[in-house]
Design goal:
Two copies of one chain form a homodimer.
Chain A (H helix, E strand, L loop, with lengths): L14 E5 L4 H12 L3 E6 L19 E5 L5 H7 L5 E4 L6 H6 L1 H22 L4 E7 L22 H20 L2 E7 L1 E3 L12 H10 L4 E4 L5 E2 L1 E3 H12 L8 E4 L5 E2 H11 L5 E4 L3 H6 L9 H6 L8 H15 L5
Parallel strand pairs in A: 1-2, 1-4, 2-3, 4-5, 5-6, 6-11, 7-10, 8-13
Antiparallel strand pairs in A: 9-12
Chain lengths: 334, 334
Amino acid sequence: MEVATITNITLEGARILITGGAGMIGSHIAQLAVAQKAKVTIVDALLPLYGGNLFDLQEIATQIDFIQGDIRDPALMARVVQGQDIIFNLAGQVSYVDSNLDPLLDLDINCRGHLTVLEACRHNNRRARLVFASSRFVYGSIDYTPVDENHPFNCRSIYGIHKLAGEKYYRFYYDAHGMDTVSLRIANPYGPKQQMKHSKYGIVNWFIRLALEGKPLTIFGNGEQKRDYIYNQDLAEAFLTVAQTPGTAGEVYNVGSGTGTPFKEMARLVAAAVPGTQVVQVEWPADRYFVETGDYISDLTKLTTATTWRPQTTLEEGINRTVAFYREHWQQYW
Amino acid sequence: MEVATITNITLEGARILITGGAGMIGSHIAQLAVAQKAKVTIVDALLPLYGGNLFDLQEIATQIDFIQGDIRDPALMARVVQGQDIIFNLAGQVSYVDSNLDPLLDLDINCRGHLTVLEACRHNNRRARLVFASSRFVYGSIDYTPVDENHPFNCRSIYGIHKLAGEKYYRFYYDAHGMDTVSLRIANPYGPKQQMKHSKYGIVNWFIRLALEGKPLTIFGNGEQKRDYIYNQDLAEAFLTVAQTPGTAGEVYNVGSGTGTPFKEMARLVAAAVPGTQVVQVEWPADRYFVETGDYISDLTKLTTATTWRPQTTLEEGINRTVAFYREHWQQYW
């Protein structure tokens, strides 16, 4: 296998490590990679409050290596990165709300953890492709839409600040150590296998849980605020496509649907997928209003110019599939 | 005393905390503040490899409270921030070279340390003015000069990435918690009281040490690369002026001389100040070349528009004063 910057990578036989691989995006990447005959290793700490769930991996449990471990463990990281061709880094504290309540914990996982992985690769495997899961939260308050990668970093959360630092680390290891790194700024992901124990992750999935439990969906404000909801299977395909595309090293790409959907339209689609669901409207709670960033729509020009990836799943279709998934498997997720 | 955003602060009787206050910039701030009858407390860890030196404080030793302690100590920080009117945060790992060799140590001091101070203030003193020492290293490779505050963050060091995170924290605590924070991006500081045990800090001071020891000064490349050298007494005045100026909360300002001096001209001035000094020219060493950022000159428009501060000291005058200082006190610094 050649270095990724020189030639296309085929997944057949490739050794792939996924940190946070028991979470909703990582597990989708794993499933797609296994289907293409990659040798997949997953490291996930399965921290109780976060997204890791062994059920996410049950269809491929016999075809992967699973290690319960933490990206903050330098000895473990030094060992597991060896010999990998591609490393997808999705481990993390993923709630911006929690990051603001406990900035030092977010720092520990989202900066120290990812620096630990990068240092492990610097010392033990400089040839791997490294793909980092960043977030639209680096942009914070939005100055214009659609948002391209040059938009200012008006971070409105500790989570966003640490994701920005993570991207900068990735670029630094590319510049300074010739490592093959790339970052993806994820819009609002949703879909099967997201954890749904509390409301702090994706709002689409949380609405689906509320609807399935017969509870009303609450819209803050007038519900006109637009979001870019990206189905997590599409997202997993974006990660794999970028990892296989030469010329992406050192770069940062937005990944989303490229479509802005008003919040109330998303709620309407969830309600339509679960007949009998009520939608109610309330004022913005003060703590949420602070992190309301304004409309967000990804400009995907950079990604779609560099790669063959395109979003495939409409929000309606994605919500319907997600509802079907949780109707069957809700006991595993809440 | 009123909140700083509402009215000018006078220093007489003001309670001022300086973290890293035994270092070259902090000790100058302390001296100026004591002269204006402020009540000054200094916290400095006096870590052996860093800039803290009790000799820096000897003229004011009986007029300040000194605490040997680390900004990474939450209990200490919770105690010392209470009742302070202004907190200058200069503690840090300050070598970009070391930051690249040991990114996790830089993270620990420059991110965890400063987040610990901010969290201590959030819980124990939300009224203080907080002034953060950031750095031109957030800009990394320079796209244009003079460099204004909107220049992209092309960070070329872990140090620069963590300073950027620090600035973003300061802005976040302003936005989210209504705290009165401001950051200064420092150009190339030099002057009396800088530590000179090794070459990893300021090059002007290192050249002065070499000259005083009768050693030649080495210029990398053609010596035309421009830097913005700022005398540390001018810098201390900038910190105090910004702290006393309403309307600066939430902002970031460049601070430098506003003048670009070719490297070889700086060397010539040092050689002139220490008669008999030789200047020699060599190729760029590979490890230094990576972090060579291109010419750097601060655009001071934002700072000089917002405040009355102006740089006062020419490079020639500053070098002469610095040489005179170290001729007398070199035993304390190397």
